[in-house]
Design goal:
CATH class of the largest domain: Alpha Beta
Largest sheet: 8 strands, parallel, barrel
CATH architecture of the largest domain: Alpha-Beta Barrel
Strand content: 15-25%
Number of domains: 2
Number of helices: 13
Structural class: alpha/beta
Order of helices and strands: HEEEHEHEHEHHEHEHEHEHHEHEEHE
Strand order of the largest sheet: 3-4-5-6-7-8-9-10
CATH topology of the largest domain: TIM Barrel
CATH superfamily of the largest domain: NADP-dependent oxidoreductase domain
Radius of gyration: 19 Å
Helix content: 25-40%
Number of strands: 14
């Protein structure tokens, strides 16, 4: 209890300091921050599209588009997705007439040709000629990622020169990759995992990740954060978990997934520093977090365990085993299973 109160008091002072830095700011206008050295002003709340797609909740496209459009109508200008999330249709339907919206996407492509296809796919399925931020999708990668995926990286650099990609980024769960990306001149944006418990951080912890983020920021990189609720593990400390990351001054925005209107309503109020009705807070805290389950047939290929960014899947005697204490509910294991043997329940 003492720890929670201490965190809350410190973060309250941080919010007040942020207000002081922005005199004249209307409380109903969500604060925007510049991303690194680029001409990108993004809202503190970034709408994360992963959970609404087939890897997780698989909500209807019309409803997902409604949530995205509502966020846009209430001032949110930053949206995060990825080719593997299969959520381009939601964003296209919601934002087709909103060219000012800032969209970040990602690709696991390794070669020049694969990344080029990913760029064309993003343009077509998002209905946009310009992709604001295009990441190397590299959750489990090592610092060697820039050499191992040199072709894909070169493609992003070429398409930035052509004016089709505005900023090049990397999304990662690893501290040493953030440190390496800080030194790579062609990386504009870094999208690291960071949360109050340090869940999912590879080759480090919360403290070392914060130091890596600070190093990257000093090198001029734009930074926004993922997995601040640790895949739902921090839902019982919803406000403190979000405020912990908001208090890291080098982070411009926080991507949080949304699948229900009450969740969006909470974030719109919270990031606008407005009071939150207790009933709304209770509805968010009462959310049941779905988790992946392994079905009956398994060929023991181990692809799911090799893909899992948090190391939550290991091979048992006859099938993979999931450690739900480590699971971030990202859903990355679902599409890689050749037998379609993993489902959310």
């Amino acid at each position: 209890m003492i720890k929670s109160v201490t965190i809350t008091l410190v973060l309250f002072r941080s919010v007040e300091n942020k207000k002081a830095e922005n005199p004249g700011k209307d409380d109903e206008d969500m604060k925007k921050n510049r991303m690194g050295k680029l001409d990108l002003l993004v809202t503190e709340f970034c709408f994360g599209a992963l959970p609404m797609g087939p890897l997780q909740a698989n909500i209807p496209i019309d409803y997902g588009a409604h949530l995205i459009r509502k966020a846009w109508n209430h001032g949110v200008n930053f949206f995060d997705t990825a080719e593997s999330y299969q959520t381009y249709p939601y964003l296209q339907k919601a934002l087709i007439d909103c060219p000012e919206a800032i969209i970040a996407t990602k690709s696991t492509a390794s070669t020049y040709e694969e990344m080029e296809k990913s760029i064309f796919k993003a343009q077509k399925e998002l209905g946009r000629s310009l992709i604001n931020i295009f990441h190397l999708h590299a959750a489990r990668a090592t610092p060697a990622v820039f050499e191992e995926r040199k072709g894909a990286f070169e493609c992003l650099k070429d398409y930035k020169k052509k004016g089709i990609v505005q900023a090049i980024g990397i999304s990662t769960h690893a501290v040493d990759v953030v440190e390496k990306a800080a030194e790579v001149s062609d990386i504009d944006i870094i999208f690291p995992i960071i949360n109050i418990d340090g869940m999912g951080i590879i080759r480090g912890n919360t403290s070392t990740m914060v130091k890596a983020i600070q190093k990257a920021y000093l090198r001029g990189k734009g930074i926004y954060a993922m997995k601040v609720l640790a895949g739902g593990h921090c839902i019982d400390r919803l406000v403190d978990a979000i405020e912990f990351v908001r208090n890291i001054r080098e982070i411009s925005s926080i991507a949080i997934g949304v699948v229900k209107e009450v969740e969006l309503d909470f974030h719109l109020l919270h990031f606008n520093q407005q009071s939150i009705p207790q009933e709304l807070l209770n509805q968010c805290l009462d959310r049941k977090q779905k988790k992946p389950v392994i079905l009956n047939f398994c060929r023991k290929c181990r692809i799911c365990s090799e893909t899992c960014p948090s190391g939550a899947i290991t091979m048992g005697s006859d099938r993979p085993l999931i450690n739900y204490e480590k699971c971030l509910a990202c859903g990355y294991c679902l599409p890689v299973c050749p037998e379609f043997n993993i489902r959310f329940a």
